[in-house]
Amino acid sequence: xxxxxxxIISVLGDQLSHDLSALVSGDKARDLVVMAEVMGEAxxxxxxxxxPR
Length: 53
Hints:
Blueprint: E1 8-12, H1 21-24, E2 32-36, H2 39-44
Parallel strand pairs: 1-2
């Protein structure tokens, strides 16, 4: 039986960046990225990666 997912890559909200090595080396066709952010961090950290609305 063939695996549907190659790797599960966990990313915490404060680690997210365009050059995160785990994402750069990831396989878009096979790997699964799980991103989590705790509510306390979501309120305190300024997010500059998202385009302004």
